[in-house]
User: Which sequence fits this backbone?
């Protein structure tokens, strides 16, 4: 799956535990939301596969049915980012 920056539309790169846009110089976290009720989904790892659970619907959701939103990471990790990207 390709991931694009919600602000400029450029492709995000996976870096050090988050998605990073080299153009905006911003880090993003990918959050999964229920496609039915819009609640944030809980990530469940089982047998190597990742599934999502909606506490509101009380239902297991597949990765493909979830809605994904990129949220800007406010934590200051610019030191790490600049080391990686020169
Ligand atoms: Zn961007
Ligand atoms: Zn739901």
Assistant:
């Amino acid at each position: 799956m390709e991931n694009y920056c919600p602000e400029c539309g450029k492709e995000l790169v996976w870096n050090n535990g988050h998605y990073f846009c080299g153009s905006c110089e911003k880090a993003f976290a990918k959050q999964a939301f229920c496609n039915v009720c819009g609640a944030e989904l809980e990530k469940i790892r089982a047998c190597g596969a990742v599934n999502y659970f909606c506490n509101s619907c009380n239902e297991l959701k597949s990765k493909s049915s979830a809605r994904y939103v990129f949220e800007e990471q406010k934590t200051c990790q610019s030191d790490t980012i600049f080391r990686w990207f020169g």
Q: What stands out?
A: Residues 7 and 75 are 18 Å apart (CA to CA). The chain has one domain: 13-85. The chain has a mean pLDDT of 86.
